[in-house]
Amino acid sequence: MVESLLDQRVAVVTGAGQGIGREIAQSLAEHGARVVLADIDAELVDKAATEIGGIGVTCDITSEEQVHDLVGAAVGNFGRLDVFVNNAGITRDASLKKMTVSDFDAVMAVHLRGTWLGVREASAVMREQKSGSIINMSSLSGNPGQTNYSAAKAGIVGLAKAAAKEVAHHNVRVNAIQPGLIRTPMTAAMPPAVFAEREAAIPMKRAGEPAEVAGAVVFLASDLSRYVTGAVIEVGGGRNI
């Protein structure tokens, strides 16, 4: 086990039951962190936590009370909070013509409200510690049928930058990561022809793997990035070049 980067640090990862979130939790643990995994799916998060060796917490990140309790669980079990990864997300794709207000609101609530609650609760603890790293998962998305998702993910970038300015003098850092096309259960639901078309448009000519997103998280969680805040790191194989 490589422990030098995050040895004994306490990390919370939302949406950690599967996909990118699970891989992030795994990578943080492999680098020595004590990890609290959160997910709305109790069965998935308990299984992931058992396999990774962390603590599983069932949490709806749109709930102010549940996010507060999630941070409290980390501090209660480990005495501190060093890393908070706002990763949980959903999609409700549809064209503008067919998208319902409820589909728009659901995506905004999970991605934007959920991330804001995570930033608020985590930073409250980290300010008192005078240290901490908050990592928000945005996206390179700007695809047709994803006006709700794209708007929410763009908002996460603005949230990260504004929050970074607020808490930088407390030695608390807030950054964002923008994954491109990554192989996850979410993208596996895409029609194969659409996936292939988007993959072909990437300069590196392949989709990314969850571990490649997790690597960027480990960097932002560690002291390797101690002078990095308010930044947006693209993990997209050159998609925006």
Automatic annotation (TrEMBL):
PROSITE patterns: ADH_SHORT
Name of one Pfam family that matches: adh_short_C2
Assigned keywords, A-Z: Oxidoreductase
Protein origin, superkingdom: Bacteria
SMART domains: PKS_KR (SM00822)
Presence of the UniProt keyword Transmembrane helix in the record: no
Any one GO biological process: fatty acid elongation
Gene Ontology molecular function, alphabetical: oxidoreductase activity, acting on the CH-OH group of donors, NAD or NADP as acceptor
Domain Ketoreductase: from-to ranges: 9-185
Transmembrane segment boundaries: none
Entry keyword annotation includes Transmembrane helix: no
UniProt cross-references to NCBIfam families, sorted A to Z: PRK05653.1-3 (NF004198), PRK07231.1 (NF005559)
Family: Belongs to the short-chain dehydrogenases/reductases (SDR) family.
Stated name of the protein: 3-oxoacyl-[acyl-carrier-protein] reductase
Originating organism: Mycobacterium stomatepiae
Taxon lineage: Bacteria, Bacillati, Actinomycetota, Actinomycetes, Mycobacteriales
